[in-house]
Structure formats: structure tokens, C-alpha cells
Amino acid sequence: MTSATTKRVAVLGAGMIGEVHRRAAVLAGAEVVGVLASSPERSREVAAAWGVERAFADVDEVAAADLDAVHICTPNASHVPFAVQLMEAGKHVLCEKPLGVSLEDARHAAAVAQRTGVVNTMPFAYRFHPMARELRARVQAPAFGDVNLVHGTYLQDWLLSPLSTSWRVDPAAGGPSRAFGDIGSHWCDLVEWVTGDRIASLVATTSISIKQRPAALPAGAAAFSTVESDAPLVDVTTEDSAIILFRTEADVAGSAVITQLA
């Protein structure tokens, strides 16, 4: 039995991140009402596994449902269309990054949120790690003094094999930026959150080291899987690595190396 104050939520996307959002919602005291997966059949399968009431067939059913909020954990290119439709239906949205795959997309989603009066936000989860919270407390304490330089890395290796791939590699699904958009965004958010100082300007270079990858993962492979695929090769247009030099609003210099091939 749920109370009148319990938030009713749904999860769009049933991969690894969708399961993380489901668990977080339950731990926060929400009622997960239903799930929308990649097909009606998959929705029914996941709803049974999660023990939830609804297996949604499409986003129209989600928009029409009695929900307070919706978690969007689907491929990047679907974020703004889904978020806009759900906000127009009066639902708050917790959207996996990015809010949009272009500046125009993000501005459109922000305008709809402002007009409808609902929340459209991203969960930058690294902020809630105890180590990150301790670092923020120390850096922002008066005894720490001024920040003179910011430098760091975010290194992944799950796409190191030329025969590994993901929907993130495809710009039609993941957007024009991969490594920086996917993990560099986390690094930049942590820098700004820990220091309280915003990145104001930057220069960057990106590289594509593996020029071709398989067109698709094997059926059933997880999104971050290192399973190698024997699908036909296609040209890669999203970056494997990015290097940025930046300056903050407080005129602090910084740099970062971001890669999925470390």
C-alpha cells in the first residue's frame, strides 16, 4: 500500500542504467509504476522481473498514465522528444545526460520546462559519492585557500577492441559527441561542483583512433559490453578521445584528458 505522498514514477529504458534508476527510485521511497523497454514484449518481460504494474507499449501510454515523474534512460537522440512529450503531459522528467544532442535541442527542452512549470533535470550521480562530497567540502572550506590549477582525466577502456561497439558509436542514436559527451560531461560537472567555479572558455581537440567498428552489438549484449561483434564494419564519426584546455570564470587554468581507449 502506498501513501498519498508517495511519488509514482515510470522508467523509460530497461538496460543497465534503467535498472540503476529503478533501484534509486525505490530507495528514495517512490513507487515504480511501470517500464517502457525497446519493444512491448521486452516491456512485459522487464515489468515481470521488476514486479511493477505496467508494461508500457509506447511513450504515448506513459504520457497518459497517472505519474508524477518519468526517468528517461534511453539512447541520447530520444531524450528531447520523449522529455518534451512527457513535460507537455505534466510529468516531471529525470533525464540521463545529455538533455539534448545539440544546443538547440537542449534550449528547446529548457523552454518547454519553463513554460509547463515542471522539472527537467539530469542526475549527475558522481556528486553523491562520499569521496566526491568530502573533496567538495575540503576544497570549499576557507582553510583550503584558492584553487590555482585544475587537471584530471576520465579513462575508460571498454571500446579498446576494434571489434567492440555500442549504440553510442552511432551519431544517429548517441549524438555527434561520444567520449566527451558521455564521460567528459561527468568530469566537467564534478570540477564545477567541487570548486564552485564554472568553466568559461575552452579549446579542444578530439581523435578517432579506430576508424571502423562493427555496425551492431551481438543480440542480447549489454550496452557497455566488451563482447566483440562480427557484424559488418562501418565508418566511425564520433570521437574516441578528447583533450581540453580551459579557463574558469575565476580565471583558473585547467586541462583534462578524456578517452574510452585507455
Descriptive report:
The protein has two domains: 8-123, NAD(P)-binding Rossmann-like Domain (Rossmann fold), CATH 3.40.50; 126-259, 2-Layer Sandwich (Dihydrodipicolinate Reductase, domain 2). It has eight helices and twelve strands. The chain has helices at residues 16-27, 40-50, 59-64, 79-88, 103-116, 130-139, 171-174, 179-195, and strands spanning 8-12, 31-36, 54-55, 69-72, 92-95, 120-121, 149-155, 199-207, 212-214, 233-235, 241-248, 253-259. Strands 3-2-1-4-5-6 form a six-stranded parallel sheet, sandwiched between helices. Strands 7-12-11-8 form a four-stranded mixed sheet, covered by helices on one side. Strand 1, helix 1 and strand 2 form a beta-alpha-beta unit. Helix 4 (79-88) runs parallel beside helix 5 (103-116) and helix 6 crosses helix 8 (179-195). The protein is globular. The model has no long low-confidence stretch (mean pLDDT 94).
List strands and helices in order, with pairings.
Blueprint: E1 8-12, H1 16-27, E2 31-36, H2 40-50, E3 54-55, H3 59-64, E4 69-72, H4 79-88, E5 92-95, H5 103-116, E6 120-121, H6 130-139, E7 149-155, H7 171-174, H8 179-195, E8 199-207, E9 212-214, E10 233-235, E11 241-248, E12 253-259
Parallel strand pairs: 1-2, 1-4, 2-3, 4-5, 5-6, 7-12
Antiparallel strand pairs: 8-11, 9-10, 11-12
Helix pairs in contact: 4-5, 6-8
